[in-house]
C-alpha cells in the first residue's frame, strides 16, 4: 500500500484541560531530521492566531540546535485557554503537543562575555640580590659584604653558600627594603678589593640551587 504523507494522529487532549496561567508548553512531534527545519517564526505565526504573544522560547540542544520543546506566553489567560482548547495543532506536517504551565519556566540566558586581554602579572619586588665573583684570595667576610652593600641601604642578612665545604665565590645579600635591592641592581658590576662583583636579580632556579648548596654544606 502506498505510504501517506499525512501526519500521524496526535493524542487527543482531554476536554477538561484548563489553562492554569498565560503560559503553555509545547512539544513538536515528528522526525528529528525534519523537526529541526521548523522555524521559530512559524511557531509564532501559528500561536498568534489564538492571541497576542508576549514571549515564545524554544529550548536548545547541546549542540545549540533548536530542540522540539519550548513554551509560549500569551497576554491573556483566555488566549492560552483558546490554544489549549484546540484539539489538533498541525504545523508543517508536525503535530504540536500542548500542556498548561502554572508559571513561566525559567530560562538561563548566559551572557556572552567579551574575552578580556590577559593581565601581565608584575613580579613582586625582591629584597635579595645574588652576588658572584668573590675571589677566595680576598677572603671577603660577611661583614665586609655588609659594609660594601650598605651604601645602597640597610643590609639585614648576608649568606655565602659553600660548595663541597669550600667558598663558592657567591653570596646572597638581603636588604631591608626592595628599593635598596633595586639600587644595588642598578650597578651590576662592582669592585671589592680585587674581586669583580657581578650583581643579579633573583631567579627561582638559581635561588633553589644556591640554597640547596648552602643547606647541604651546613649539614656536613
From TrEMBL:
SMART domains: RRM. Pfam families: RRM_1. Keywords: RNA-binding. GO terms for molecular function: RNA binding. Residues 101-123 are annotated as: Disordered. It comes from the Eukaryota. Residues 25-112, 127-220 form the RRM domain. Residues 104-118 have a biased composition (Low complexity). This is RRM domain-containing protein.
Amino acid at each position: 500500500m502506498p505510504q501517506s504523507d499525512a501526519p500521524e494522529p496526535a493524542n487527543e487532549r482531554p476536554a477538561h484541560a484548563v489553562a492554569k496561567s498565560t503560559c503553555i508548553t509545547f512539544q513538536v512531534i515528528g522526525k528529528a531530521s525534519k523537526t529541526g527545519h521548523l522555524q521559530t517564526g512559524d511557531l509564532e505565526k501559528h500561536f498568534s492566531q489564538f492571541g497576542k504573544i508576549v514571549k515564545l522560547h524554544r529550548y536548545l540542544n547541546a549542540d545549540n540546535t533548536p530542540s522540539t520543546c519550548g513554551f509560549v506566553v500569551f497576554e491573556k489567560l483566555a488566549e492560552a485557554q483558546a490554544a489549549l482548547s484546540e484539539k489538533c495543532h498541525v504545523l508543517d506536517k508536525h503535530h504540536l503537543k500542548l500542556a498548561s504551565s502554572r508559571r513561566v519556566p525559567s530560562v538561563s540566558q548566559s551572557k556572552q562575555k567579551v574575552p578580556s586581554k590577559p593581565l601581565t602579572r608584575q613580579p613582586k619586588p625582591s629584597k635579595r640580590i645574588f652576588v658572584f665573583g668573590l675571589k677566595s684570595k680576598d677572603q671577603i667576610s660577611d661583614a665586609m659584604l655588609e659594609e660594601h652593600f650598605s651604601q645602597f641601604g640597610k643590609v639585614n642578612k648576608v649568606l655565602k653558600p659553600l660548595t663541597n665545604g669550600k667558598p663558592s665565590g657567591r653570596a646572597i645579600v638581603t636588604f631591608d627594603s626592595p628599593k635598596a635591592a633595586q639600587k644595588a641592581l642598578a650597578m651590576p658590576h662592582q669592585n671589592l678589593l680585587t674581586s669583580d662583583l657581578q650583581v643579579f636579580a633573583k631567579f627561582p632556579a638559581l635561588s633553589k640551587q644556591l640554597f640547596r648548596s648552602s643547606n647541604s654544606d651546613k649539614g656536613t
